[in-house]
Amino acid sequence: FFKELRLGTGHKKGAEQGIDAYVMNLWPSKNFQSIAFEIKVTRSDFLRELANPLKRYPAMTVSNQFFFVTPEGLVDVDEIPTLCGLMEVSEFGDVTVVKKAVVRPKQSPTWDFMASVCRRVARAEKLK
After folding, report:
1. From residue 88, how far is each of 34, 37, 39, 124, 126 by CA, in Å?
2. Is the four-CA dihedral 59, 116, 23, 21 of positive or negative sign?
3. Rounded CA gap, 126 and 26, in Å?
4. Alpha carbon of 65 to those of 37, 98, 106, 122: distances in Å?
5. Other C-beta atoms within 10 Å of 118: how many?
6. What are the DSSP calls for 58-78, one per residue?
7. Please, which residues have CB within 8 angstroms of residue 43's CB and are 6 or more apart in sequence?
């Protein structure tokens, strides 16, 4: 599990773009399944995301599923794009899958993405 994972390294175009949360199964028998999560806490932020679908494309290429995560009732399930899912978080922290995300094949990760993951792992190891 990674929170706020960048999609690349350095300062070239797209490297600073990130995924709010990313999880990957580490076993070949599970096909290294991975999920990207985009967290939206305001309606205006969600609507900006819908207006710019290319923003989520990089996260979708490195994941098999893509979920929006919002407070309960922030969005209508019908507003969620076709390939995406929706998880809602209650005021008590309970998480409910309101709409399942389509499971899709993912592309092979780029070296920039792998370097970003490795940097995060190295940073975590240094903190131990």
Report:
1. 19, 12, 10, 29, 34
2. negative
3. 21
4. 9, 14, 9, 26
5. 11
6. HHHHT-SEEEEEEETTSS-GG
7. 74, 75
Let me know how long the chain is: 128
94 phi/psi in degrees, rounded to 5: -75, 140
pLDDT digit string, tens, across residues 30-79: 889 999 999 999 999 999 999 998 889 999 999 999 999 999 999 999 99
State the Cα angle at 13 between 119 and 102, rounded to 5°.
75
- Mean pLDDT, range 69-91, rounded to an integer: 97
Per DSSP, what are the bridge partners of residue 71? 89
pTM of the model: 0.88
